[in-house]
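User: Quick sanity check before I run a bigger batch. Here is a single chain. Can you write out its predicted 3D structure?
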Amino acid sequence: MERIILGSGKVYVMEFTGTIPEDTLIEVVGNRLGYISGGATMEYKPSYTKCKDDLGIVSKTILTEEEATFKTGILTFDGNTLVKLCNTGRVTEATGVRTVKIGGTDNYDGKKYLIHFVHEDPTDGDVRVSIVGVNEAGFSLSFAKDKETVIDAEFACQSMDTEGTLIIYKEEIVTAG
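Assistant: Done. Predicted structure follows.
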């Protein structure tokens, strides 16, 4: 099939506990990170070491490193969202006020998150991308009089299993009926 992926999607985030649950358990309103703006980008970048003899007769190339990131802009958010973007965030709620404290290396919680992106396509089938990681890029909140505030999150992928998997890409296979 010739698949054309057009459009954005939804991002869900939940604490990673060692296994990835079924999609139906991830894709619930309570796990939605927020509606996104500017789409989402999944990047995979391998690094290789290449060696060759002086005459160029024999050579060898080996994979030495892999790096993967998931980037998205978060348009709708609250204090609970910020805590998922910062490993030193703490949130409390009292008398109708949510307070988020960010910072202090002693407050590092060491949590990893499952980030799960869903691109819905009723014609060609849905696409899902799942990673485990943390937002290592920090964030900024820009309050401008003529522009919405969007948090640009960049999650660095970490291995999610004993095979070293960084990304799970799933696509529905739609057959002509």
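The beta strands are 10-15, 32-34, 36-52, 59-74, 90-94, 97-101, 113-119, 127-135, 151-158, 167-171.

User: Great, the batch can go ahead then.
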